Amino acid sequence: MCSRLTRLLVLIAALVCTGSLRMVAAFTAADYASALRLSILFYDVQRSGVLPNWQRVRWRGNSAIYDGTQSKARLSGGYYDAGDNMKFGFPMAFSMTLLSWSAVDFREELKQAGQLGHTLNAIRWGTDYLLKAHTAPNELWIQVGDPNSDHACWERSEDMDTPRPAFQVNTNRPGSDVAAETAAALAAASLAFRDLDSIYSARLLTSAIQVFNFANNHRGKYSDSFGGVVCPFYCSYSGYNDELVWGAAWLYKGTRDVTYLQYLISNGATLGGTTESVNSFDWDNKYAGAQVLLSAFVLGENDGGLHGYKARADNFICSILPRSVSPVTQTAFTPGGLLFRSGQSNLQYVTTAAFLATVYGNYLSNSRSTVSCGGAIITPLQLASFAKSQVDYILGANRLGMSYMVGFGPKYPQQVHHRAASLPSKRVYPGMIYCQQGFSWFQTAKPNPNQATGAVIGGPDQSDNLNDVRSNYAQMEPTTYINAPLVGVLASLAEGSKGYK
């Protein structure tokens, strides 16, 4: 645990980092532990299928239990991606990869906070689905539901009467991006379960290897194969090279097989892993995540063949920090100090940046290293402070004094753009709420009848403003992949980050 003096120094560093002295609240370890518990609880809100007996969000019910049957596949389970009733495999797999990364790198912190079991439950619900979706070595079911029909309705997932077609990538319709992301998720989860369930871990790893081979040997963008089915919702804008690097990186970490090391070294330039410098990390572009992950091998084992990845990781870190810290930054910040990249679901970029800063800070701290950004030396403490400043903003240290995590603090969003939360539950209103009927609840100015506990919404605009209106999906819709990176950062803050010691 951190000393009081260390916590004070971290708080001061966060204030200097953002230039927002008057806005930053002094959150305690107990506050971060509470936010951590809520951030994982959100996956109960998003759970699809026949709910398990350990389900904690009781207003949710069983839903989409027959998914895949019309295609003779067993695709019940998994998670809805956001405030709709769609199961998109691409962002779902990314969410499981990041949850698993937290369970690997912040295992002790999660255990001390009493949240490791809940985190592993959340991961396993997702990876069980991904295993079912991998029906043959060169087959992967990557989506259930028609997004256009789904988005034309406002109904509870328990009431869905919209078409539920399932879509598969295979040798005729390749999808290297979604397949390699799925491989990353399965490989990362195999590490998360290795000490607790060796049989399940081995099963995950076997599937990961097969799915990665499929992704690598039958290359193509899944959005080229399925067009309007996945675009513009989760179109693969960055292509699939980043996912091939990402998948191989996790397989190397999971197996330590030199085959994957050689793949990463020999393909570093052609796939962009050692040449692409990026300033964001999200469900579509995985370069920064792979580069930071592989940097651990350079810093810890001096693996010279991977130095190019570490150089790009350094560039990423330099690009996301405020100008007061990094003179070569490529990132804009709101007046209140929030990293700002997009007017739609901006907090997804904030939580991933905070996560990678925390992870990389730990790697640097363990090897007693720093990063040079245009001549400025960046320490692990500064990275931890930056991550803390972003998390504090999300939790309520902002101009509005509003927490952007539902259920945390005294003030948080009331009209979250989320179908299930905005409609009365089956327990309260047992009757069917049909497609168009639900819009009468959508249009009301009343708070949601159900709390999407732990949901982190899209977030405020570039001027630190938020319009808490249900129709404002760009700011008010939560997603599984906004929450996933927060788990590790909050565990670190709750239990005392290694970077603070």
TrEMBL record:
Membrane-spanning ranges: none
Any coiled-coil regions, as ranges: none
Keywords, sorted A to Z: Carbohydrate metabolism, Cellulose degradation, Glycosidase, Hydrolase, Polysaccharide degradation
Catalytic residues, chain numbering: H417
Family named by the database record: Belongs to the glycosyl hydrolase 9 (cellulase E) family.
Protein name: Endoglucanase
Top-level enzyme category: hydrolase
Catalytic activity: Endohydrolysis of (1->4)-beta-D-glucosidic linkages in cellulose, lichenin and cereal beta-D-glucans
Domain Glycoside hydrolase family: 32-490
SUPFAM superfamilies (UniProt xref): Six-hairpin glycosidases
EC number(s) given by UniProt: 3.2.1.4
Residues spanning the signal sequence: none
